[in-house]
Amino acid sequence: MSYLSTLSSWKKLQTHKYELQSIVTKDLFSFDQERFQRFSFVCHDVLVDYSKNKITQETMALFECLAQELSLDKKIKDLFKGATVNFTEKRPALHMALRSPQAKKKMVDGENITALIKQTKEKMAAISRAIQAGEYLGATAKPINTIINLGIGGSDLGPKMVLSALKPYAKEGLNYAFVSNVDGQALENALAQADPERTLFIISSKSFTTQETLENAKSARLWLKQALNRDDLNQHFIAVTSHVDKACAFGIDEQSILPMWDWVGGRFSLWSAIGLIIAIVLGFDHFSALLEGAHAMDEHFEKTPMRENVPVLSAFINVWNQHFFGATSHAILPYSESLHQFTEHLQQMSMESLGKSVNREGASVDQYRTGPVIWGGAGTNGQHSFHQWLHQGRGRFHCDFILSKTTSSCFDHHAVLLSHGLAQSQALMLGRSQAQASAALEQKGLSAKEAELLAPHLAMPGDRASTSIILPELSPFYLGFLIAWYEHTVFVQSVIWDINAFDQWGVELGKQLASTLLPALKQNKTVDADASTLGLIDFLNQ
Ligand code: F6P
Fold it and tell me: What is the reported pTM?
């Protein structure tokens, strides 16, 4: 039996679910005229509406009991205090310290991290201001105007998503690109637009051992060397890493290395010097506003009672839909072109954190499913693609709609965009019965017989759960707020499932196996592998 099912609140949630399962969510609105007000919250002018989920006041009360039984309040405090939440790697997870304005000393492993963060931010500010002012010169004394980030996973996805979300804030005349894939085509695509004399590479790698990033960095250096016909390329490389020694050994000038630390997980690192490209392109003030927004969410998460704490409620809603209503995936649907990469960032943040099978004691958690599949994409594009599956498919999911009240676009499309976002969540909840479909067909002029035959194909079951989030604007502050919200939601889910949200051992085996297979592909050497893999190698080598 899982520890969750021993909790009295969990048992009550199970019974409560049986009471609710025959009720359709749309009817809950007729039973309770105040439902929207009751289940929506405004926090820093951001609205979140949970009312289209199958919940009642009793569900919320049981969530609160569950939070108490899990000692969630204490676990949140422990996280902020720097407890060893990443127990397999014996580390705290203190990315919140990166966005805290507090000048108070905070010690980790005998180091005052407040001072380290301050020094690093000063360096980031100086670099970004110099580049924005055209004063950061390359080896041939030309101002840098192109920044290429070489990094993968958390050293790529967060900054890439932020820059695509905040394009209107980018400094005009600065070009940037992200190269993550070790497929040489990715680097080639980025270099096609770049002037070697004016290009700065940021090698972003916490470990400075990631093969993809190092291969790209080596090729970038070769490209520069050949193009500029010189060896003194220091001005063209900055490294961000927690292994300064390795970056030095690679040939990066120590002055051009910005630190990060073990207490910052890769997928939570955009707030650190991994976000240097954000600071350069948007300017340090906008980078600071991003941190301020995340800090506002940190404060909310740490200090707000469970019943109004939005990351806590989001996590409970996610677990409620997953455990009690069978959702196996969580679709993230931003109705914002600017947020089209948000889902991809969240995919790493959530799936690398919650894709675990054992609890804190190392015992299997096979009694319940842990992290869901995170997927989705920008509305309205999804409506012309996978929304068919959402409306009439047999898969179980729940989804988040993310909207912005305002837009920076000069075209007058925003009301159209918003109408689609709202209509999709409405359609998912309301559905359409066969009788309704049949009546609509008859109104269109079909005979009763034809309508009856066609109606089953047009009927939609509805009663699909969704949460809507409305930001006042897509600014650095609110983007920071939103990202931190999802980070904390992921943490709360890990507490509920009793798993470690901050390690990622599952990615290691593939890396090791790739290194054993490489000699077979590069030098035609014999390697030890299963028959399928050997057959594939053989075919590739022919
Ligand atoms: O392989 C997974 C991973 O370790 C991620 O967790 C991390 O964000 C990414 O690789 C990149 O790692 P690094 O910054 O050390 O190059």
Answer: 0.97
